[in-house]
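G., the chain you wanted modeled:
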Amino acid sequence: MNRTMLALLLLISSASVAQDQVEYDFKLGKENAAAGNHLIAIDYFDKVIAANPNHSAAYNNRGVSKYNSGEYKAAVADYDRSIGLKADIANVYYNRCDAFEKLGDLQGQLRDLDKITLLQPNDADAWYRKGNVKNSLKEYTSAISDYNRAISIKANHADAHYYKAICYLQTENFKESLEALNKAVEFYPESSQAYTYRGIVKGQLGDYKGSVQDYTKAIELNPKDAATYYNRGVSRDKLADYKEAIRDYAVATSLNASYTSAWMNKAIAEDSLKQYVNAVADYKKVIELSPANSLAFFGLAHAQQQMVITGIAEAESGYTKVIGLQPGNSAAYLERGNCRMIMGNIAEAKKDFVKACELGNAPACVKAK
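Predicted structure as tokens:
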């Protein structure tokens, strides 16, 4: 054998050994990544890329390990390299989309999902994710179209039905939202959120009994969600079932002590039942949480006003606070005038009636005369 032939054989053998080492390092990288040893995996993928800068799978896998290490920007850079070398692998676009999601890059996600649906037009989850991104961008009509595409591929895609319903709710298409939520509940009856939102939609359509039923089911599935108790309380208010509404608001405030709206609605319901002592306490809680809440001051003053013997002076003070917050509140002037009349302060009462009349309050004009 001549020297030229021997050198050629050695060269081939050396290249074969080098290639074997690359594939062995790649295999070790994947094994370490699967075991959760991502830093070690990255070292192996570094070796593969150093030996073969065109190894697209190594870039992709290194990107996955960087993603799992919280290095989202670095992961995107690796996915970019992988796609630059081989642009028809849907999985790499999925991986980069995940990284863009972590980075809050909605447009980046959308570009990758457009590519995925082009490569895999029957991928229901890709259409669903496109819908979610457009939902976040408030492109509700286009999002609904993507959810419908996902549903046409996978009819029982409960999440697509659910988020389609949310888009319809955002655009105040309540009947369409209800239809979508009916499907979401059908395909995923364990979803407390689906029942909660169906309760909201039924309330918007005036079906308060139906909304109470849905909130009750949601509470059975998730008894720790303060907002659902609050919402059920609102529907019970609409049905004039104030006692049960108060119970719901009480649970909401026990789960979330700073739930201002629940404290406020509880006070209003108590006021409706003439439970003035309780109403006063709850209005004061609202004011503690929201010191500039003029409605709470007005409600507090009204409740105190009903307690003529013990609360009339406090009521007068409360209406004065409301006027300080809302100088154009004619009802506050009228009620303060009423308090001053009861207290025998006729001259000051008349001033309040005159001011309320000037602000357009007809009953005050009668009293001013």
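The longest helix spans residues 3-34.

Shout if anything looks off.
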